[in-house]
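User: Could you check the structure of this?
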Amino acid sequence: MDEIIKIFCYNCQCETKQKILFDKHEVMIPEIFGYDKEGNRGQSVWTVEFMLWKISECQGCEKTNFNVIRRFDPKQTDILMHQFPKKQIRDMPHWVSYLNVRYMELFIEIYSSFNSGHVRLPLMGARTLLDMFMVEKIGDIGPFQRKLKKLAEDKFISDSAIELLEIALEYGHAAIHRGYQAEKEEIMGVLDIIENLFQSEALKHKSKNLKRTIPKDDKK
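Assistant: Sure, the predicted structure tokens are below.
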């Protein structure tokens, strides 16, 4: 009888019943490190755990999913270590493809990092995006505060947007200079700010493409 498990399906975007197509177990003996209060490495111990490799087929959409599961003890709950295609924490906006490739590539790195569970790198990337945007629009004229003020003066952003962009920049500073580990909700908020800034840029480029495809009026 075919083994059926209930696990996340990337296509259905929810947990579904799936038939196991491939299943392999491996015994692992990793070294576990301990750290003192100052963050320095201390003693280590060896432990035994199991890695379960499973390829399954969704019984709804019939798409294939791959999962790597970690098991410390047969009596403990399994921990999902890797999933492909994986469940996204936040999808990258489709309009990013209309941005200059320099921005688009950095957007991809930011969202890939965030969806991989990183908390510092997405904020560092967001700060870099903002700096690139400011330098492109007004040049490298000094500190971030001066750049934001100049952006507003030149009508690239509204006065009300300055405070929001300052928040995004401060999170980037905290991650870079103080090693701050933000909560998921904080990172989502910073990405909201970044998306709000760049969506209008993408719309400008998209509008140029749309304008070229408008049928001409032969009567004019």
